[in-house]
Amino acid sequence: MALSPEELAEFIYLFNMSITLEVIIYLDIYRVGFISAYIYHYLATFAEEVSSIWPQRWRTGKVLFVIARYVPMALIVLLVLEMRVWVIYTPKACEGISHGVHITSKLSCTAAELVLLLCLHALLGARRRYLVLMIAVYLGLTLGAIGLLVKIYSEEARALPATRLDRDLGYPCEWVGEFSPAAIRGRIMASYVAFTKAVCIAVFALTVLYIRYRTQAGSLIRVIRRDGGAYIFAFTAIRLAHTLIAAFGVGRGHEFYSFSVPALNFAAPSLACRLLLNMQQSEDPDVQTRVTSIMFEGGGPDHSGESVNEEEDMSGEPKGRIAYAGIGQRRKLEKESSEISDSV
């Protein structure tokens, strides 16, 4: 029996509704899984945060920790507002939510990456001028990529009045979903910049861990556990996989990208915060000194711009555990010992 035009239109509508609902429900369940895991991790480590971070002064480390820790909370609120809340928003409100999602996700990811770079520098023990150069290059690449994404973010935020399908599914926003060629080119260029940055961070992380292992006593597993290598590996792997999918469309491209975003937004900040807490409890006293001097209280600078442990210097006792010191710190100590011997 032939369907009337009205019946055919209704059939097509119900078919589209079922397909759309299935895809969105899977994505929402995936998001809710990461959100639940993040909240659980937050509650499980809250006491450690109170004892280790709250007493610190408001320096670089505490600011980055707070951003990486609490900005994802704001992102969670915004993502929940986009889910099936059975409330219809105005297009202006939907645009504000979209902009908020982009800002919070970029801010938390950037803070997490900066924490990783600072911790890697502390493990390496290089001079501070190299840290300044590294951070300058990183921020240049990051701001450049964000600049390329401004147009696509602006076009992604364009909203329309809610349709019948949105009202029936319970979703509050309807997006235009069309992008200009310039915006698409900007997103492609930004994805390549992000991939290059992720590769550089991964190579730097592997180099630092390799140097730490080669110059210290003990097994590789012990060094990795002591220096937070598991968190470093996991963080760099997530970041690299996300940028690889964004840049080259591995597999099915956009579908995989949609599923990699929650992992980056919630797993990466959690790993960065865990790494920073772990570094504060490191068995290496020089790493503790460097983490403190770079990101928290700060220490007294010496002639080369390095921080030194004032308590050890005033006591007149030789610095121990040189085998666990960063490469730059160990070389500095060897140089000072040589100068003392030459003067004698």
Structure, explained:
About 10% of the residues have low confidence. The chain has 344 residues and is mainly α. Strand 3 and strand 4 form a beta hairpin. It contains twelve helices and four strands, in the order H-H-H-H-E-H-E-H-H-H-H-H-E-E-H-H. Helix 3 packs parallel to helix 6. The longest helix has 48 residues. It has a single domain, classed as Up-down Bundle (Rhopdopsin 7-helix transmembrane proteins), CATH 1.20.1070. The strands form two sheets. Strands 1-2 form a two-stranded antiparallel sheet. It has a two-stranded antiparallel sheet with strand order 3-4. The N and C termini lie far apart (107 Å). Pfam families: DUF6533 (PF20151). It comes from Ephemerocybe angulata. InterPro entries: DUF6533. Keywords: Membrane, Transmembrane, Transmembrane helix. This is DUF6533 domain-containing protein.
> Major β-sheet, in short?
2 strands, antiparallel
Output the strand order for the largest sheet.
1-2
Order of helices and strands: HHHHEHEHHHHHEEHH
What fold name stands as the CATH topology?
Rhopdopsin 7-helix transmembrane proteins
Low-confidence stretches: 299-331
Helix content: over 70%
Average predicted confidence as pLDDT: 78
Portion in beta strands: under 5%
* Tally of domains: 1
| Category from helices, strands and their pairing | mainly alpha
The CA-CA distance between the termini, in Å, is 107 Å
How many helix segments? Answer: 12
Number of strands: 4
CATH class, anyone? Answer: Mainly Alpha
Radius of gyration: 25 Å
Q: What's the CATH architecture name?
A: Up-down Bundle
> Can you tell me the overall shape?
elongated
